Amino acid sequence: MGRVIGIDLGTTNSCVAVFVDGEILVLANSEGGRTTPSVVAFTESGERLVGQIAKRQAITNWEHTAVAVKRLIGQRFDAPAVVDTRSHVSYEIVPSPTGDAWIRLRGRDYSPPEISAWVLKKMKQTAEDYLGEECNDAIVTVPAHFNDAQRQATKDAGRIAGLNVLRIINEPTAAALAYGTSHGRDGLYAVYDLGGGTFDITLLQMSDGVFEVRSTSGDTFLGGEDFDRLLVDMLSKEFLEAKGIELREDRMALQRLKEAAEKAKQELSSATGTEINLPFITSGPQGPLHLIRSISRSEYEGIVEELVEKTLGPCRDALKAAGAKTNDIDEVILVGGMTRMPLVQARVGEFFGRAPNREVNPDEVVAIGAATQGGVMRGEVADVLLLDVTPLTLGVETQGGIFTPLIPRNSTIPITVSEIFTTAVDNQPFVEVHVLQGERALVRDNVSLARFQLTGIAPAPRGLPQIDVSFHIDPNGLVEVTARDLGTGRETAVQVNAASGLSEADIYRIVEEADARRIDDESQRELVELRNKAEGLMYTSERSLQEYASVLPASDQEAVLSALAYCRQVLDQHMGVEEVRGALSALEDAAYRLADAMYANLGGQG
Ligand code: ADP
Ligand code: MG
Question: Whole-model pTM?
Answer without folding.
Answer: 0.79
